[in-house]
């Protein structure tokens, strides 16, 4: 079974093997990733965290769990410009630095093993966590509590003061959605670091993990253009054209399609 198939198979398990799925994503990019060894490393972290947690009801342990991870050095990767390593779980386990989404997935796996109720929240720009029924969210980078005003401030920092906080921003995230978001993050990081072939691996995984957006087709089309694959580029542009309702975007896409070479067919 190749890393892609192994990653997708993790979603069919009960419970979903979310952490292992992220390791198989890392293995797609680096053949030397030893998934069983990484899981063993995580098991050691679990034992360490379990010994450090206070004696409290499990419903009160989510924030102490995040604080213990922070005390052990698990922090948001602040390196600028951000590198793909920040979104590869094997690197996060080794360096203890990563994107909020990776730190959240690590926390969710620990919480599941410790029977701590916790869920992912697909907040734009900065993935968050929530204890079901709580009146606040938790930042996976240290465990800070975020109330509605804090969420508005975080959203404004990410997208500008004109952005309004809505219920859509606070929706829970399924495992497949988290892996798709991780794949989009990696796709962008590989593009930013001038690695189009690696970005294409992530772009293809995005398509397999759930409903896709116009931007997913456009991004993959741009990668195919960079890699000089006009027929694959045409396929994605045609799908983007079918999905978009924007008249200006439809016009631009039609123009781009008109400039691509037509497929040559042989008659036998």
TrEMBL record:
Coiled coil: none annotated. Residues 45-183 form the Protein SirB1 N-terminal domain. InterPro entries: SirB1_N. Pfam families: TPR_9, Transglut_core2. Belongs to the UPF0162 family. This is Protein SirB1 N-terminal domain-containing protein. It comes from Pseudomonas parafulva. The lineage of its organism: Bacteria, Pseudomonadati, Pseudomonadota, Gammaproteobacteria, Pseudomonadales.
